[in-house]
Structures are given as structure tokens and as C-alpha cells.
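Please fill in the sequence for the structure shown.

STRUCTURE ENCODING:
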């Protein structure tokens, strides 16, 4: 009974940390406030997502799950591996994912460059033009944000939150669904297209995490996706073209 109470308390605490972040989130800022927005995110997100997840895991005595897939997620592994096209070799799966990502990024950047040089609107799923960097200093901020988000958000949304939700409900599927839904809603400033795209990213990364059993790989994929959108794309495509895609 004591363990069940602790799990419920920690789940509520994690959701409370999430709500605290959501309430103060102003990512959809005006372009003039980009640096202020970057700094605000770096103050709030690591606390709301990274610190809360680490404290919850430590208090529950589940620190080892950072490096080992929780047993609560074991029933989901076969399905995740089928969806990921797992062929029995985790290394091959990871290499295939990274190769696919690299190829997709190159194709996406090529299309973006082609559209920008013809004055066409960019194909961006979400309204986050105000966050895109305009200067080398801002690019440094977005690179830092992209990497940090890949670490703390995966720690929170792919491990801690679904783990304690699964322990409280007895159903790991509900845990993953809850975490993915909250992850998507955290990107509401990007509009409904951004929320939908974030949900797709959340599902994809969750599948990769469950299929490989390695949280660091999910963090890597998430960070690479962020760097592609917030660093590589703005460097190769004029920001004014990206801004035109807000509506």
C-alpha cells in the first residue's frame, strides 16, 4: 500500500511539474523576444522535465531505469519491435534509423531550399517561425535548446511519466498514451499542425525507445530532429521564407 501511495504521489508531482511549465510557457513569442524566450525555456524546462523526472526516479528507487528498460514496459516491446521493423539486431536498427533520418533531412532541406529560392511558402508543420534564429548568437541558443530538450523531454515523457502512470494504472499502454498526449500539448503554441506533428514524433520516438530499450538513443533521435528544425534549416533557408509559413 505504501508503494502504491508513493507511485500515485510521484505521478501527481510529475503532472504538477508539467502544469507549472505549461502555465508559464510563452514559446510563441514575438520575434523581438527570441533571446528572452530562449533563456526562459532554459530556466523552466530542465526543472519541470529533467529535475522532476530525476527526483521521482530517485525517490522511487528506480534510478536504474535510466540505463535499463523498466520491466513495466516489457509487454510493449514485441509490438514496438514489429512497428520499428526490428530484425533481431539492435545495432542494425539504430543504424537504419539514423541513415533514414539523414536521408530525410537532406531531402527536406533540398525541398526547403528549392521553395525558398522560388519565393514559395515553406512546408513547416507548426507555427514556430518566431523561435527560429536570425544571428549566430541565436543559432547557438537554439542548438543548446535542441540538445537539452532531447535529453530532458525524453527523460520525462518517455521514461518517468509513462513509468509512474503505468505503475498506478497497471497498464503501460495508458502510460505511453498519456505521456504522448501531454508531450504533444506542450507544443500547442505551434498550432494544431504542430501539436499533430509533435504527437507523431512522440509516438515514433516512443517506439524506438521500446524497441531498442535504450533511452539515450531516443534522446539522440529527439535532439537530431530539433537540430534539423532549429539549426540546419534556418542556416540553409532564409528565415523570411520560413516566417511566411506561419498562417
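FILLED IN BY: designer on duty
SEQUENCE:
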Amino acid at each position: 500500500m505504501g508503494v502504491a501511495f508513493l507511485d500515485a504521489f510521484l505521478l501527481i508531482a510529475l503532472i504538477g511539474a508539467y502544469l507549472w511549465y505549461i502555465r508559464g510557457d510563452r514559446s510563441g513569442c514575438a520575434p523581438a523576444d527570441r533571446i528572452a524566450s530562449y533563456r526562459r525555456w532554459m530556466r523552466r524546462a530542465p526543472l519541470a522535465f529533467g529535475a522532476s523526472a530525476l527526483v521521482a526516479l530517485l525517490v522511487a528507487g528506480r534510478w536504474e531505469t535510466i540505463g535499463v528498460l523498466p520491466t513495466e514496459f516489457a509487454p510493449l516491446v514485441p509490438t514496438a519491435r514489429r512497428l520499428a521493423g526490428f530484425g533481431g539486431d539492435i545495432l542494425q536498427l539504430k543504424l537504419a534509423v539514423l541513415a533514414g533520418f539523414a536521408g530525410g533531412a537532406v531531402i527536406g532541406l533540398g525541398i526547403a531550399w528549392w521553395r525558398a529560392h522560388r519565393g514559395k511558402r515553406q512546408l513547416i508543420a507548426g507555427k514556430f517561425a518566431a523561435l527560429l534564429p536570425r544571428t549566430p548568437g541565436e543559432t547557438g541558443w537554439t542548438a543548446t535548446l535542441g540538445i537539452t530538450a532531447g535529453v530532458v523531454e525524453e527523460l520525462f515523457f518517455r521514461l518517468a511519466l509513462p513509468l509512474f502512470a503505468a505503475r498506478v494504472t497497471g497498464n503501460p499502454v495508458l502510460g505511453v498514451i498519456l505521456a504522448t498526449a501531454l508531450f504533444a500539448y506542450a507544443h500547442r503554441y505551434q498550432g494544431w499542425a504542430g501539436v499533430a506533428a509533435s504527437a507523431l514524433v512522440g509516438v515514433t520516438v516512443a517506439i524506438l525507445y521500446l524497441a531498442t530499450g535504450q533511452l539515450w538513443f531516443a534522446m539522440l533521435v529527439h535532439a537530431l530532429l530539433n537540430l534539423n528544425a532549429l539549426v540546419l534549416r534556418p542556416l540553409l533557408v532564409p528565415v523570411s521564407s520560413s516566417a511566411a509559413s506561419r498562417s
